[in-house]
Write a structure and sequence with these properties.
The protein has 157 residues and is mainly alpha-helical. Helix content is 66%, strand content 5%. Helix 1 packs across helix 4 (76-84).
Length: 157
C-alpha cells in the first residue's frame, strides 16, 4: 500500500494531537506551520478527519482540533481512509482491479489484505508509545503478521 501525501499529513496531524492532548486544541494553521505543510491542504484533511469522527472541531478564538476519541481506539487505517476521503474507495477498487481475479494474483491480494489488516490493528496510541523504540513496533507488526498468516493457513485447509 502506498501512502499518499494526504494520508501522511493526516497521520502527522493525528499523531501530534495524540502526543499533545493535554495542551488543548490546535488549528490547521498551527499544525501546518509546525510541520511546514501547506495550510489549505492540511485544513481540508483535518475537516475530513473530523467528518469521519477521528477528530473534533472546536470553534472560536481558541478553536482548533482535538482527538474525538482515545488514541487506543483510532487505527492507522481509520486515519488513512478518512484523510483520503472519497479517493480511498476509488483507489481501493482500482487496486483490486489491477490485482485481477486470476489465481496468479492471489499472493498479491493476500499481501494487500495483510497490510490493510495490520494498519487496522495498529493504533495511534501504538505509534505514540513506540515511536522512540522502532524495534518494538517491528516486533508487534511481526506478531500480527504471524497470527494473520496462521489464520489464513487455517482457513485455506
Amino acid at each position: 500500500m502506498l501512502l499518499t501525501r494526504r494520508a501522511c499529513y493526516g497521520l502527522l496531524a493525528t499523531q501530534h494531537l495524540a502526543e499533545h492532548a493535554d495542551e488543548g486544541s490546535f488549528s490547521a494553521n498551527d499544525l501546518a506551520e509546525f510541520y511546514g505543510l501547506p495550510c489549505e491542504a492540511l485544513a481540508k484533511i483535518l475537516q475530513r478527519l473530523a467528518t469521519a469522527g477521528v477528530l473534533m472541531s472546536h470553534h472560536g478564538i481558541k478553536g482548533g482540533y482535538t482527538l474525538a476519541r482515545d488514541p487506543r481506539y483510532i487505527s492507522v487505517l481509520d486515519v488513512i481512509k478518512a484523510s483520503q476521503g472519497s479517493r480511498w474507495s476509488s483507489l481501493h477498487s482500482e487496486r483490486q482491479q489491477r490485482l485481477g481475479t486470476g489465481n496468479g494474483y492471489q499472493p498479491l491480494r493476500m499481501v494487500n489484505q495483510l497490510v490493510e489488516d495490520m494498519l487496522g490493528e495498529l493504533t495511534i496510541e501504538d505509534i505514540k508509545e513506540k515511536a522512540s523504540s522502532p524495534a518494538s513496533l517491528s516486533r508487534d507488526a511481526s506478531s500480527v503478521r504471524a497470527s494473520q498468516l496462521d489464520d489464513q493457513t487455517t482457513r485455506s485447509h
